[in-house]
Specification:
By secondary structure, the protein is mainly α. Helix content is about 85%, strand content about 5%. It is found in: Cell projection, Cilium.
């Protein structure tokens, strides 16, 4: 009966018979909540580490992809340049062939006359 009166007044006895302001059940729930919060914070910390590692990996892959992209662009430009050089060389050779044909025709005309 004395415990009921103290309980109504907001005072409780714990397992060691010490007088407490909080109900032992509320105290236990508070301790459990504190432990769950600590576990949650630990898990969030682990998650942040994992995400940080993932971000670093993605950044590294992005840099490598950008490097390969630049190499591919350089190779494509070089290929275009080589193609243009070949076209110019082909035109020069065709002009030289036309010139040689004309010389040959002139020489044949001279020898014929």
């Amino acid at each position: 009966m004395a415990k009921d009166i103290l309980g109504e007044a907001g005072l409780h006895f714990d397992e060691l018979n010490k007088l407490r302001v909080l109900d032992p059940e509320v105290t236990q729930q508070t301790i459990e909540l504190k432990e769950e919060c600590k576990d949650f914070v630990d898990k969030i910390g682990q998650f942040q580490k994992i995400v940080g590692g993932l971000i670093e990996l993605v950044d590294q892959l992005a840099k490598e992809a950008e490097s390969e992209k630049m190499k591919a662009i350089g190779a494509r430009n070089l290929l275009k340049s080589i193609a243009k050089q070949r076209e110019a060389q082909q035109q020069q050779l065709q002009a030289l062939i036309a010139e040689k044909k004309m010389q040959l025709e002139r020489n044949e005309l001279k020898t014929f006359l």
